[in-house]
Amino acid sequence: MKVVSYIAQWRGIVKEAMNRTAIAVKFLCCLHITDNYFCSPVHIYGPSMLPTLNMVGDIVLAEHLSQRLGKVRHGDLVVVRSPSDPKKSITKRIMGMEGDTVTYFDPMLGDATRVAVVPKGHVWIQGDNIFASLDSRHFGPVPYGLIQGKVFFRVWPLDCIGVPGQ
Amino acid sequence: MGSSSFLWNFTKKFVTFGLITVTVSDRYVTVVPVRGGSMSPTLNPKTSSSAGNFSDDYVLVEKICLDKYKFSHGDVVVFSSPLNHKERHIKRIVALPGEWFGSRQNYDVLKVPEGHCWIEGDNAAASMDSKSFGPIPLGLIRGRVTHVVWPPHRMGAIQSPPREGLSSL
């Protein structure tokens, strides 16, 4: 007799556990979809985007719809998967789309300005701080497929909330 | 009232199922069709008899490798084309970052840059690969092909081909 009541209790507990797990799984799926397809926070680190973005501790929001729809433009701040290390993401500004001729200046290589043509399917990215930025001037134009998202809003630090400047 | 609550239940289940499918196919494993013959005879082999040519191969692509981006020689991968980000191609990795790679065609030896890899199709004659657009960044890779799941008579794991003549030093 006791065994029957134990089994009934157990079944109730298992059903409750499955319900809770289902809710947790659904929540994690929604989180994944929002993070990948809509909007995700990015933690910025490094001096290559001064003065637009601070050196340490900025948190910005990047949206992933523009790059999927091909609407990323010249002058956009984008989060890009680094071509030298696929586990890292870098944040730079787009200075040339495919087919453009880009004129750039690299202080580390002397005073000459150089010219490059961006091939099909690639973009030219540069940090705002040209004196301390490793970007397309060093590793060349990057394929559009490496762009992960476009930065549209800064949420931290609190006194710089808003759209990052031009 | 009964039919509207049935519709609501059905919609809820449909949306849940859709969310879970999208998440699993983005993060863990998915099945994709293979178009074109650039990976012949491994995938979509062109047979002279008409019996085997009715449909494309379907393969299992796992995405767990995108956590660490650690690939090995002979891995067949799915990647976004560097010439057109909307297209996805399937080819084999023949050289990893930092390796010196000797290409058969023009007897050049070149070094694959850090973070890039050299990919080639098994059917060298009809394949748009690194021989035309150079090494590709590992960040373009979207998954690794592990098994063929359709047609049934060719179901099974993908093998590394016997490398004849091509050597990476």
From TrEMBL, chain A:
Subcellular location: Mitochondrion inner membrane
Species per Swiss-Prot/TrEMBL record: Stylosanthes scabra
Cleavable signal peptide: none
Pfam families attached to this UniProt entry: Peptidase_S26
Stretches assigned to the Peptidase S26 domain: 25-106, 113-156
Designated name of the protein: Peptidase S26 domain-containing protein
Keywords on record: Hydrolase, Membrane, Mitochondrion, Mitochondrion inner membrane
NCBIfam families on file: sigpep_I_bact (TIGR02227)
Family stated for the protein in its record: Belongs to the peptidase S26 family. IMP1 subfamily.
Main subcellular location: mitochondrion
From TrEMBL, chain B:
Residue runs in coiled coils: none
Similarity section: Belongs to the peptidase S26 family. IMP2 subfamily.
Matches recorded under InterPro entries: IMP2, LexA/Signal_pep-like_sf, Pept_S26A_signal_pept_1, Peptidase_S26
Name of the protein: Mitochondrial inner membrane protease subunit 2
Domain of life of the source: Eukaryota
Organism placement in taxonomy: Eukaryota, Viridiplantae, Streptophyta, Embryophyta, Tracheophyta
One Pfam family this sequence matches: Peptidase_S26
Keywords: Hydrolase, Membrane, Mitochondrion, Mitochondrion inner membrane, Protease, Transmembrane, Transmembrane helix
Keyword field contains Protease: yes
UniProt-annotated location(s): Mitochondrion inner membrane
Gene3D superfamilies attached to this UniProt entry: Umud Fragment, subunit A (2.10.109.10)
Xref: NCBIfam families: sigpep_I_bact
Membrane topology term: Single-pass membrane protein
Domain Peptidase S26, chain residue ranges per copy: 8-99, 109-150
